[in-house]
Design goal:
Structural class: mainly beta
CATH architecture: Sandwich
Distance between the termini: 18 Å
Number of domains: 1
Shape: globular
Largest sheet: 5 strands, mixed
Number of strands: 17
Number of helices: 1
CATH superfamily: Ureidoglycolate hydrolase
Helix content: under 10%
Length: 170
């Protein structure tokens, strides 16, 4: 299967989560006129089994294309949000939140460099695909406490026996 990313929009990503962006959003002026607040641009879903929300920074390495999509993962009980700390596009590969990933429903999206994404709980996705080395991302998801958590944090499925190649043609 050949997978080519399409430009990310709120409409084409809606089945997988939310686009984190101020584009087409209303703001409120705060701080005596020195800031505009764009409220509630993404919903967080981390409270399963008394979960807490946590903020991380991931530092990603660049990927080479064509890229073999060798696995998918999902977080069955929480959302996961990626917000770039740079102005460089990144790519997401996703499949709908089903028991097992539907390869025929696999999609790829490329951001405009200013957009982040928020995966809904249970959305299958390939790990972070950065186009540059040392790209930093703010990641917001459920805090993992190894001593007390009873829920499954991440489910992975190998795709090694399926040929899925992500190609760049934009």
């Amino acid at each position: 299967m050949r997978l080519v990313p399409e430009k990310l929009t709120e409409d084409n990503f809606a089945d997988f989560g939310e686009v984190v962006s101020i584009q087409s959003k209303q703001s409120k002026t705060i701080n005596n006129g020195f800031a505009d607040k764009y409220a509630d641009i993404a919903s967080l879903d981390t409270s399963e089994d008394q979960g807490q929300t946590s903020v991380h920074i991931f530092v990603a390495k660049s990927r080479q294309f064509p890229l073999h999509i060798s696995m998918l993962e999902k977080h069955p009980f929480f959302s996961q949000t990626f917000i770039p700390r740079h102005s460089s596009p990144f790519i997401v590969v996703v499949a709908p939140p089903e028991e097992s990933p539907s390869i025929e429903k696999l999609k790829a999206f490329i951001t405009n460099g200013e957009q982040g994404i928020s995966y809904s709980r249970g959305v299958w996705h390939f790990p972070l695909i950065s186009m540059n080395d040392n790209s930093q991302f703010i990641v917001i998801d459920r805090k993992h406490n190894e001593e007390t958590d009873t829920i499954e944090q991440c489910k992975e499925v190998s795709l090694d026996n399926i040929s899925v190649m992500l190609e760049m043609s934009l």
